[in-house]
Design goal:
Elements (H helix, E strand, L loop, with lengths): L11 E3 L2 E3 L6 E6 L2 E10 L3 H20 L2 H17 L1 H12 L3 H21 L16 E8 L2 E5 L7 H12 L3 E5 L5 H13 L7 E3 L4 H10 L5 E5 L2 H13 L3 E5 L4 E5 L5 H13 L9 E7 H15 L20 H16 L3 E4 L18 E4 L6 H4 L6 E7 L2 H9 L3 E2 L1 E5 L3 H10 L4 E4 L15 E2 L12 H5 E8 L2
Parallel strand pairs: 6-7, 6-9, 7-8, 9-10, 11-12, 11-17, 12-15, 14-15, 17-18
Antiparallel strand pairs: 1-2, 3-4, 5-20, 13-14, 16-19
Helix pairs in contact: 2-4, 2-6, 3-4, 3-6, 4-5, 7-8, 9-10
The structure holds NADP nicotinamide-adenine-dinucleotide phosphate and magnesium ion.
Amino acid sequence: MSAFAGGQTYLNYINGEWTAAAAGKTVPSINPARPHEVVGYVPASDRSDLDRAVAAAKAALRPWRKLSGAARGDILFKAAAALERRADEIAETMTREMGKTLPEAKGETLRGVAILRYYAGEGMRRIGDVIPSTDSEALMFTTRVPLGVVGVIAPWNFPVAIPIWKIAPALVYGNTVVLKPAQETAVTAVKVVECLAEAGIPAGVLNLVCGSGSVIGQGLAEHPDVNGITFTGSNQVGKRVGQAALARGAKYQLEMGGKNPIIIAADADLDQAVEATISGGLRSTGQKCTATSRVIVMRDVYEPFKAKLLDTIASIQVGDGLDPDVWMGPCANKQQLDTVLGYIQKGLSEGAALLAGGGRPSDPALAEGFYVQPTVFDNVSPGMAIAREEIFGPVLALIPVDTLEEAIATANDSEFGLSASVYTRDIGAVLAFIQEMDAGLVRINAETAGVELQAPFGGMKQSSSHSREQGQAAIEFFTSVKTVFVKS
Ligand code: NAP
Ligand code: MG
């Protein structure tokens, strides 16, 4: 029996109180596997709600930054415990709200727990260096201070992990936060914030304002009292957010799209390479910024790799992510489904050969949900739209190449540079790939998707604002360095 009553109304969290949008408006968050099913009604907030949240965050700043990092970390440890206790319920909410399978949702929720614990510990770690002064009687060192009020704008594809990997470091380093989750996954966001509220976050330190991107997201980016904006989402929106922040001198951090390649070298273990291609490309229905999209295969192994890939893809079960037999759920929303179907048509019209999938599943039971088949295109040339633009769906483009140099050049022939992987046992090929691949995450004999919370995460080129999140890299965005010179 599910713990959720369908159609329950959820609230914003402002200044320590659960509260409806001032105008009383809500929007439904629906289940992409069964779009008639409402997971919950969430506030459709306006600027007055945002203003109250920012004012609360601003007022809460002084006492929060005066606490020790260890004291702030204690609250994150408690939030981790609360999230762990509710992991099954929150994972189920996530699956119902955006479609990823329950094991993936559970894994993500537990990652959220681990991120909270990691940053809880960061509250007691080093925040500066002593630098020898040329004045032998002086002490010179660096310390770090919080940015201030931080606006978090999050996407729907990792509705627990992404908000937490922004909120947790923001809080532990002494900032206060206003979170604007994707409307698509606002119920999941409410439950994450409930865990932090239960942990004893003081009023105003963490605020949640649900609403549309154009009103609340843009409002945060433009708000004069928001000192920093951290954004994950599409390139188009990210650039606008960055411009709005830059225009008023606020700090910003953008994590955006990818068009991630996997290179299959002639000496690759093909079974492992197929598994990595499918896992990296099709899990979460291809809706990861690190998802494998371009499969660059040396001609010597092109045919056997293709045969094994198609064989495995044929066995993928598509359906409701709550069904334990299902491996791939629906697209998260109708717009995403239409985008994916549009790219499949583009691939066909540009002359790529369809090897698998290519449309919606034929099973009448899946007619209503936002389902698309796992899709593979053959003989894709690097100039085609399906080889250049982010699709954010379960579509793989196979690109044949003759040499490793050509493979790396093809992999680099993209405006994006988030993640890239190679399958080979050749140490020379590995070293060349590490050296020459322009991507923030470079993975050898591992899939393109796969992020460890204690390591820096972020992309090159158009994939980010050239900043990094997670691990100890997070301190760079969420604090400012102060250089201190002391003399008696
Ligand atoms: P999106 O449309 O850019 O939305 C991201 C967030 O921005 C949502 O909360 C959205 O709100 C908000 N937003 C929309 N318009 C806005 C505006 N004018 N001003 C300020 N905020 C605004 O992206 P998405 O469709 O949710 O997510 C998919 C994209 O995210 C993909 O392109 C993917 O590559 C990228 N992504 C990147 C990473 C990474 O770390 N590099 C990770 C995950 C996803 P509403 O949607 O609620 O209106
Ligand atoms: Mg939904």
